[in-house]
Design a protein that fits this description.
By secondary structure, the chain is α/β, with parallel strands linked by helices. Helix content is 60%, strand content 9%. It is built from 36 helices and 13 strands. The protein is elongated, with a radius of gyration of 35 Å. Bound molecules: guanosine-5'-diphosphate and magnesium ion. Guanosine-5'-diphosphate binds next to helix 5 and helix 8.
């Protein structure tokens, strides 16, 4: 292989005691970043403290501190020996001059590799730039060969290599392998990606691979003359800002734009290019998860990851790339890497019914389509494929929003109204079971635990399974068809207004299902600030676990305007989310105008099987939740409410009852009713004096200003475990074991009165209290699973912030609603 840097001196060969100046850091982006962060920056003087052959690591002194580097790291740092100038120098100033000259000579050499599809104009560019006159033409050489030319430009020496043309960087042809070896092994300073602008989509495919490799790129948008003639337009500056490198239009065979490209190369080399950033192409959750998994095994081999980007290696292993596997041969955990990547591939094959490499390719095209959709206007006459025809309607400027909102309307409408039917069946089933158990079991602690604890607690949550299924069915359909990406696309402008990105729409929408996957879905956002703001407002997207609470209270207290009230609740959440995002934008994350590509994957008909798998996942998760957290919580709440059985207050009532019962002479209907009402009162008093009652009484003062009694307060506390448990708790707490017939929970709520205290005898619930309560449930601290996920993804600090602010928000909103409502006389 021809090389651009045959006579380079690297830090790894410098002997102990010698001094040198860093002239260049080679390697992929994240490697360079890490090395520079340690203080190994161009122009810095390094003293070699200890370097023995075959010894790893080597010890250096740089910027006044001692740092060890692996030999493989030091190999990537080019230096210039200054021991000679130091001994020869007569004064300090001549010494610095010598050093300066030395650095300049060495570090002003830029190695540029030309990479691009065949016939995109690489050789034409090469010839114009170098002044050589290589044969130009349409040929595809049998022997792989590359030409090197050297020339001076603006004080820099540019070594340019004209690599063979390839459509991609895989391992299917010797040319491809050559280009790939070259980029990885020789690590050119800049890869000049020449693209044929009249064939952007295909040409950009190679670019996505360069992005994966994390190399510094400059793009020459060649054949720009033909491109313009065809009537197409491209906002290449915007495209460049999204992709993270400079794009310069050129007409290579006429020499147009060559100097601009060279300027761009120098700026990028000197890290002065304003567009420069490293982006990750998002391959979708499944692939990304596997990348993370494989990376864990890869990063144990530091010598390898010093040379190759670990993300790139993981991707290649997912593509079953043999050449990449070779890289790891002989390493300690080689067999582990083989088995991990095999498992990942197998898993992906099962999920996607496609080779992982195809999934990756599709994702790349989705990325390209998304990038071009925002920047490229094709010529009028160009023929379009089906996907872009559909896109023309679904992402149309006028039709896009109505279609999206219609879809969302249908989604929520079905969740509630369609879900109500099977919900009724389950409800009746649970009731029948409870009535039957009541009739067969002898009354006592066991039947109480079963009926009032477990069945009430679990049953009240189980009934909402259909609603949740329907909601997730819609979300899955959106994801599987590719419509979700379009939704993000059309929401982009609006989301920017609140400082977010169109892609934030996806996690937010998923948040209506469940906050946990939603928080994980924020990974698709490249920008950390966007991720944080999105994560913070996800809990305000009313998740499906809160639905049971709303449905219960809305049907009990707002029978006339059910749908309207529900919609209102969701809207309140959304409005507050917007408000919070705006506040964050204004005060915390002021300037944020970074541009990102929105992937547009091809439309697909969702496979029935896939949908079923997704939905079954949800059902299984829900059932698991019911049979674990919710079951346990129900039992605990029941136990806390069942004991202690007696207290001074219950004893007093007991003796009253005993007196009445002893009075056999007057045993008429009036007396029976008296006894019955005393018994009812006894069970109320018992619950109030039970452990849970005591807990509730402690919290009650905090919640009383919101109009909540101790039972509501306790229910809210239990809701930390999972929001559905609020309903379970209410079921257990409000339904008293008074009569043989089971009344529905909503009836129990309607007739609940305060047993003691200043409001004794008054109704606990009014529509106003119910509204304040629903708002509180909507806003207050998300469930434990969400908080844990947040902590895992963003760190403990953010988990605290999320919990703290949601609680404060919930309290304030509920307080305002209840107090203002009461003042206006809406309290009853
Ligand atoms: P390579 O295969 O990438 O090295 O491409 P070449 O440099 O061999 O060019 C392929 C063909 O495209 C040649 O016929 C060039 O004359 C022509 N060509 C190169 N650059 C341009 C350009 O900017 N505009 C037009 N119209 N033709 C170009
Ligand atoms: Mg050529």
């Amino acid at each position: 292989m021809q090389s651009l840097n045959d006579n380079k001196t690297t830090l790894s060969v410098m002997p102990s005691g010698s001094r040198c100046v860093i002239t260049k850091i080679n390697g992929h982006g994240s490697f360079r970043h890490r090395i520079m962060e340690m203080g190994f920056v161009k122009g810095e003087i390094v003293t070699v403290v200890k370097n023995a052959p075959l010894r790893d690591p080597i010890e250096y002194e740089v910027m006044g501190s001692h740092i060890s580097l692996r030999r493989s790291e030091a190999l990537q740092i080019e230096v210039s020996d200054i021991s000679a100038c130091e001994s020869g120098a007569t004064s300090f100033s001549t010494f610095t001059e010598e050093v300066q000259k030395n650095i300049k000579e060495k570090s002003n050499i830029i190695n540029v590799a030309l990479v691009g599809n065949p016939n995109c104009g690489k050789t034409s560019f090469f010839n114009f730039a170098t002044g050589l006159h290589e044969k130009v033409g349409n040929y595809s050489g049998v022997t792989v060969n590359a030409k090197i030319g050297t020339f001076n430009y603006n004080g820099y020496t540019i070594n340019m290599i004209d690599l063979p043309g390839t459509y991609s960087i895989t391992e299917y042809s010797p040319e491809e392998l050559y280009v790939r070896q070259y980029i990885c092994e020789e690590s050119p300073d800049i890869v000049l990606n020449v693209v044929d602008s009249s064939n952007l989509e295909r040409n950009l495919f190679l670019t996505t691979q360069l992005i994966d490799m994390n190399v510094r790129i400059v793009m020459a948008l060649n054949m720009y003359d033909e491109f313009q003639k065809s009537g197409s337009r491209l906002d290449y500056e915007y495209l460049g800002s999204m992709l993270g490198f400079n794009i310069v239009p050129t007409v290579a065979f006429k020499g147009v734009g060559i100097n601009e490209v060279l300027d761009s190369i120098i700026n990028t080399y000197e890290d002065r290019a304003n567009t420069h950033k490293h982006i990750h192409i998002n391959y979708g959750k499944d692939i990304e998860d596997e990348i993370t998994r494989i990376k864990k095994s890869i990063v144990l081999n530091k010598e390898v990851t010093d040379k190759y980007s670990s993300r790139y290696l993981a991707l290649k292993l997912l593509e079953d790339d043999k050449t990449t596997l070779e890289v790891f041969k002989g390493r300690d955990n080689y067999s582990d890497i083989v088995s991990v990547s095999e498992r990942s591939r197998k898993h992906l094959r099962e999920v996607h019914k496609e080779e992982p490499s195809e999934v990756i390719t599709n994702a790349k095209y989705g990325f390209i389509r998304g990038a071009l959709k925002e920047t490229y206007v094709p010529p009028m006459s160009s023929k379009k494929n089906l996907s872009s025809k559909i896109d023309n309607i679904l992402t149309n400027r006028w039709l896009g929003f109505p279609i999206l909102f219609l879809f969302l309307y249908i989604m929520f409408q079905s969740t509630f109204s369609l879900g109500a039917i099977p919900q009724g069946w389950i409800e009746r089933g649970v009731e029948l079971l409870a009535t039957w158990l009541l009739s067969v079991l002898p009354s006592g602690i066991v039947s109480d635990l079963l009926i009032n604890g477990i069945i009430e607690g679990v049953g009240s949550v189980l009934v909402f399974l259909p609603n949740i299924l329907i909601l997730f069915l819609f979300i899955s359909i959106m994801e599987d068809t590719g419509y979700m990406a379009r939704a993000a696309f059309i929401m982009d402008k609006l989301m920017h207004k609140i400082g977010l990105h169109g892609k934030s729409f996806i996690p937010l929408l998923i948040g209506f299902g469940c906050s946990v996957p939603a928080i994980m879905a924020t990974r698709i956002l490249e920008n950390k600030k966007n991720r944080i703001v999105t994560m913070l407002i996800i809990p305000l997207m009313s998740c499906s676990a809160r639905l049971p609470v709303y449905i219960l209270l809305v049907s009990a207290f707002f029978p006339k305007n059910q749908a309207l009230i529900l919609l209102g609740l969701y809207l309140v959440g959304i409005l507050l989310a917007i408000l919070i995002a705006l506040i964050m934008k204004k005060f915390f994350y002021k300037s944020d105008s970074e541009q990102f590509v929105m992937e547009l994957p091809p439309y697909r008909f969702p496979s029935f099987r896939n949908l079923m798998i997704h939905i079954w996942d949800r059902v299984a998760e829900y059932l698991k939740k019911i049979s674990s957290v919710i079951l346990i919580a129900s039992v605990i709440i029941w136990v806390l409410g069942y004991f202690p059985r007696t207290s001074a207050a219950t004893d007093a009532i007991d003796s009253q009852i005993a007196l009445l019962e002893a009075d056999a002479a007057n045993a008429d209907a009036v007396q029976m009713a008296k006894i019955e009402s005393l018994q009812l009162q006894r069970s109320l008093v018992q619950k109030e004096n039970s452990y849970i009652g005591k807990i509730g009484k402690v919290i009650e003062p905090v919640m009383a200003p919101l109009g909540f009694d101790w039972k509501m307060s306790v229910s809210l506390v239990t809701g930390f475990a999972a929001k559905e448990i609020v309903v379970s708790s209410m079921g257990i707490l409000y339904k008293v074991e008074d009569a043989e017939n089971i009344t529905s929970l909503s009836k129990a709520l309607q007739s609940e009165v305060y047993a003691t205290g200043p409001r004794a005898g008054q109704k606990v619930f009014s529509p106003l209290v119910a509204m304040a309560f629903m708002l509180f449930v909507l806003l207050y601290v998300p469930c434990t699973a969400t908080i844990i996920t947040c902590g895992k993804e963003f760190g403990r600090k953010w988990a605290w912030i999320m919990s703290g602010y949601t609680f404060a928000l919930a309290w304030i909103v509920a307080f305002l609603v209840f107090q203002v409502g009461s003042l206006l006389g809406l309290g009853l």
